[in-house]
Amino acid sequence: QFLKQLGIHPDWQFVDVYGMEPELLSMVPRPVCAVLLLFPITEKYETFRTEEEERIRAKGQDVKSSVYFMKQTINNACGTIGLIHAIANNRDKMNFETNSSLKKFLEDSLSMTPEERAKYLETYEAIRVTHESSAHEGQTEAPSIDEKVDLHFIALVNVGGHLYELDGRKPFPVNHGETSDDSFLEVGTE
């Protein structure tokens, strides 16, 4: 519903993945263009995140210039950031309605830095209003913008044959290696 309100034609849909076993992954319609992962933020995860960042800064990594990445500066907006990452990195596969506010946001922000994109999102009224109205339509009450939440969304995408983890809390995308359209879901869940 959120994406429909932002002007994404319903050619693509989100489906739940019930487990990572091969028989459960086989239930997911193909092709898969992104995976959104919701997980708890724990002390163990925070330690891993810090160590991963230090390792990547020390060793470096290849990130294609075509990867669309934005920082998260709005509290409790990780789901929206994850959706933007999923759609932005699959623009060529998406059909946008003529007056799509998300298409306009993506076009306007394409040449921006990840930090500039975050600032632009903070002021982009159409997405903010749609986010708020969608949050209130959910099955559970949405947390306030200032509430401490211990769950987080990230997006996994295939850009140019590489699997990227896009987490607005991190300073950069994380390249997790090669993938293909056929293996993306399995490689992503691994």
From TrEMBL:
Q: Is the keyword Glycosyltransferase in the record?
A: no
Q: Which organism is it from?
A: Struthio camelus australis
Signal sequence extent: none
List, as start-end ranges, the regions of compositional bias called Acidic residues.
Answer: 180-190
Name the chain's protein.
Ubiquitin carboxyl-terminal hydrolase
Question: Which EC class heads this enzyme's classification?
Answer: hydrolase
Taxonomic path: Eukaryota, Metazoa, Chordata, Craniata, Vertebrata
The record ties this protein, via PANTHER family, to: UBIQUITIN CARBOXYL-TERMINAL HYDROLASE, UBIQUITIN CARBOXYL-TERMINAL HYDROLASE ISOZYME L3
Q: Assembly and partners?
A: Preferentially binds diubiquitin; the interaction does not hydrolyze diubiquitin but, in vitro, inhibits the hydrolyzing activity on other substrates.
Can you tell me which residues form the catalytic site? C78 (nucleophile), H152 (proton donor)
**Family membership:** Belongs to the peptidase C12 family.
Name one cellular component (GO) term. Answer: cytoplasm
The UniProt site entry described as Transition state stabilizer is assigned to Q72
What reactions does this protein catalyze? Thiol-dependent hydrolysis of ester, thioester, amide, peptide and isopeptide bonds formed by the C-terminal Gly of ubiquitin (a 76-residue protein attached to proteins as an intracellular targeting signal)
Positions of the record's site feature: Important for enzyme activity: D167
Q: Does the keyword Protease apply?
A: yes
GO term, biological process aspect, one? protein deubiquitination
Q: Extract the InterPro entries matched here.
A: Papain-like_cys_pep_sf, Peptidase_C12_UCH, Peptidase_C12_UCH_sf, UCH_AS
* One MF term in the entry's GO annotations: cysteine-type deubiquitinase activity
What Enzyme Commission number(s) apply to this enzyme? 3.4.19.12
Q: Where is this region: Disordered?
A: 171-190
What are the entry keywords?
Cytoplasm, Hydrolase, Phosphoprotein, Protease, Thiol protease, Ubl conjugation pathway
Q: Where is the UCH catalytic domain?
A: 1-190
Chief place of localization:
cytoplasm
Q: Where in the cell is it found?
A: Cytoplasm
